[in-house]
Specification:
- Keywords: Heme, Iron, Metal-binding.
- 62% of the residues lie in helices and 0% in strands.
- The protein is mostly helical.
- The protein has one domain: Up-down Bundle (Heme Oxygenase, Chain A).
- Helix 1 packs parallel to helix 9.
- The longest helix is centred in the last third of the chain and has 28 residues.
- The termini are far apart.
């Protein structure tokens, strides 16, 4: 489905770092803010019941359905295609997790929070801008392959879950996440973006992090956790 496994030639200049490095440096503060959201900390501390966890999974399902729908629309895009691979898809796992948590008949009954709706609308708008889609793709999936793997282990232990309920956090088709992430970053470095387009992509990554943080804020409020907004 993509150029995964092939050679990638990075685009850089003498006075400008590799784009993946620039992107990581510029987004680090936003990444830390999203990672330290009160809802996530409470979840990993076991302070939120399974219903609250299921509500989070429902939000994630809506977000990834939007992302993977836009992916199909951009399949022929020269900009987006290098990043596309079925190995990253999360929708099947999220549907299975939610069905295990609340029952198959209730998968579509959990509410979508206002921040989630804003997030999904923004993702769907990226069908007209491949660079913006890559920004959201990068923010979600590389985060999943980094901190998400550790989060999954904690959530499984805290809530007594095995495969069903936490399969979202496992990437069975990616044996070694680090080489995969290294290749993904090489695709970022090879993307044919001029500096002004790189700035637009970085801005959208920061927007994606903020949208994600807003979802956790809404989740905290929905489950009655103190310190919402």
């Amino acid at each position: 489905m993509s150029t995964w496994g092939g050679s990638v030639t990075a685009q850089t200049t003498v006075d400008r770092p590799f784009f993946s490095q620039l992107l990581r440096e510029r987004s680090w503060g936003f990444h830390q803010r999203a990672e330290s959201a009160g809802f996530m900390q409470a979840l990993m501390d076991g302070e939120i019941d399974r219903a609250g966890y299921a509500l989070m999974v429902a939000q994630h399902l809506a977000i990834y359905e939007a992302l993977e729908t836009v992916e199909r629309e951009l399949y022929t895009s020269d900009v987006a295609k290098p990043f596309l691979t079925d190995k990253l898809h999360r929708v099947p796992s999220l549907r299975a997790d939610l069905a295990a948590l609340v029952g198959p008949e209730r998968v579509r009954t959990l509410p979508l929070l206002p921040a989630t709706l804003r997030y999904t609308v923004r993702i769907r708008e990226m069908s007209g801008w491949a660079g913006g889609f890559v920004a959201h793709h990068y923010t979600r999936y590389l985060g999943d392959l980094s901190g998400g793997l550790a989060i999954g282990k904690v959530v499984a232990r805290v809530y007594g879950l095995t495969d069903a309920g936490v399969s979202f956090y496992r990437f069975d088709q990616i044996e070694k996440p680090k080489p995969f992430k290294d290749e993904y970053r090489a695709h970022l470095d090879a993307a044919p973006w001029e500096p002004d387009e790189q700035e637009r992509v970085i801005a959208e990554v920061l927007n994606a992090y903020q949208l994600n943080t807003d979802v956790f804020t809404d989740l905290a409020e929905a489950v009655g956790l103190g310190g919402g907004r």
